[in-house]
Specification:
Blueprint: E1 5-11, E2 17-23, H1 34-49, E3 53-60, E4 65-67, H2 72-81, H3 89-106, E5 112-116, E6 119-121, H4 123-130, E7 133-136, E8 141-143, H5 157-160, H6 168-175, H7 181-186, E9 192-193, H8 199-208, H9 215-229, H10 241-244, H11 246-253, H12 258-267, H13 273-284, H14 287-299, H15 305-320, H16 323-334, H17 352-357
Parallel strand pairs: 2-3, 3-5, 4-6, 5-7, 6-8, 7-9
Antiparallel strand pairs: 1-2
Helix pairs in contact: 1-3, 2-16, 3-4, 3-15
Length: 374
Amino acid sequence: MNDEVLFEELASSNGRRIGVATLNAEKSLNALTLGMIRLLNAQLQRWAADDTIACVLLRGAGERAFCAGGDVRAVRDAILAHHGDGPIPEVVTFFREEYTLDHRLHTFPKPVIVWGHGIVMGGGLGLMVGASHRVATPATRIAMPEITIGLYPDVAGSWFLQRMPAKLGLFLGLTGAPLNAHDALIVNLADHVVALDGYPELLARLTDTAWSDTASANHAAVTALLNDMECATHASLPMSNVERQLVAIHRLMNRGSLAAVAQALTDGHFDDPWLQAAAHSFAHGSPSSAAVTWEIYRRAKHLSLAEALRMELILSVNFCSKPDFREGVRALLVDKDRQPQWSRKTLAEVDQAWVDSHFTAPWGDGEHPLAALG
């Protein structure tokens, strides 16, 4: 029996049911393996077709994390084991199925609640953003720190970071700056903040709800329920770093070029610890990742969700054929020496041809593996 994801169905007061999925890999902070992705895809497909299921709730086991990202160590292992030219089949499979899951959540025909407690990073944020009702707690910590492992903000990051005001999404993608629950509300990565001990009450309220036969009425019921549970005042939340530094971020991100932004981050001498940490992450991240992230922001402006995910699959497969991703994962997660040896040491070494090579479909004229997304 595979217990990486636990599924249960809770009966409500009028016989409709709530599907509950629990990511059950607490020791790895519920990092998404291919097996977990497949279990979720299959079960969500069944719940979407089951008229007795009124809504879905997705959570992570343990107190520390909803989901700390994808299992990038397994992806790196597949890269190292591969010999030969062309796309690595295991890499294509992992990212294709992960992005299919993200798309499924975004387009799910029923309410989906994500209980985003603790750490929500990378692939975990991809799950949370796709939900119709995104719940943070005062202890939530969100980030897209892919630049530190030689990747880029994927799992629809090219789509949802684009939709933040004042180029905040670009700033977050370049720096991996962490967000607290208050920040998450401001940048529209969360809809509600509920007390950390509110999960049992949420279950009780969901099972006590008289669900409708229509999805729109059920969406409204979940919204009303969460509004009622929401922390009484934002004064109880941690201070928003984004709100406090919005003018500085706006000034920083409107310098016209990545080189100018990089110079400002390097020479900024910021007094604020949060901005200092963001500048440090950028300075020690992969220059190739920074340049590609900048280009993604330019190219993705008018893409639909499906188009963005198709672009991301191309990018992810190409990143895995180049050295920085496997080196970044080694330095941060395998050897943990935090001394990655990037293939391009500075932005000056990253030319446009190198950036463009990340956007070229590695399967040539063949059908895109995510063509079915529509």
